Amino acid sequence: MSCVSFLIDLLSVVDGIVVDAYHARKGRFMTGRKFNFDTELDDMHRAVLSVLPEKLLDLTDISVTRAGLDALMGQMPAPETPENILIEDKNVPGFNGDPDVLVRIYTPKELPSGAPGLLWIHGGGMVLGSIDMDDDVCAPMAINHNCVVVSVEYRLAPEHPYPAQIHDCYSALSWMHESADELGISQDRIAIGGASAGGGLAAGTALMARDKGGPNLIFQLLVFPMLDYRNVTPSSYGTSDTRVWNREANIIAWKAYLNDIDPVPPYASPSTAEDLS
To answer: pLDDT tens digit string along 150-181?
Structure first.
């Protein structure tokens, strides 16, 4: 995982989300708004925080935050491309006349016949990030699981509020399904996934695919997904530190994404969907 992607992912899961999963595995259940970190995770979190810029994820000015993350990424060594994978960028048709959508395709050189495919959607709170930040997430996934990974460069809010992101992701999914033979994958073995905003978009895209009669998906990989615009869960009150994805950043990001749409549709906030079948 790239350093910037690691930071965003690590700092998006503080104060409750990882801890809930940890205690659930131990058979413990927690209520209220006060959470305690597992000691090992807490030490890692503190070490990362100690070297981060004070307002790394302060979304008061999203353009400034983007520039700061770009500068941080520029200081990181570029990930090495494994020799046993092919990586290709391609523009695919947008949704109902929308602009073309950039996708990045990761194909193992020794791909088995009828391989599975994964549409991967990057994180960044709907307002940050790009496919570049997940190169060393997608390439190892493709190699380790003998599958083709297609990463989608969706439009970002606030310049492009909902439904631009869902439309871009659904367009990429539809193209992936239609191009299965070209990609070397089976139409019956396509999954979707993403982290943070990407996880929320994956869930929303899956709902759209269901309602439109396809493509049919065999699996959803939702990594600490951004699902609920209401911000009323205990973990949403957990932190105010501007070096991490805090409550204020989450509220700003959802507002930028939804652009005051009312009512909020389930494709935008999948946790509000009444039917998840």
So the answer is: 999 999 999 999 999 999 999 999 999 999 99
Output the pTM of the full model: 0.82
Residue 221's H or E segment, with its range, is strand 220-223
CATH code (residue 120): 3.40.50.1820
Report how far residue 180's alpha carbon sits from residue 129's, in angstroms, rounded to the nearest whole number: 27
* Alpha-carbon 68 to chain mean position: 20
- Please report which residue ranges of 75-163 form alpha helices under DSSP H: 135-144
3-state secondary structure at position 73: helix
- What is the number of structural domains in the chain? 2
The parent domain of residue 210 ranges over 85-227+262-272
Q: Quote the DSSP letter at residue 127.
A: T
Those residues whose C-beta lies under 8 Å from the C-beta of residue 58, and which sit 6 or more positions away, are 64, 65, 242, 249
Distance between CA 90 and CA 78 in Å, rounded? 21
Same domain? 157 vs 249: no
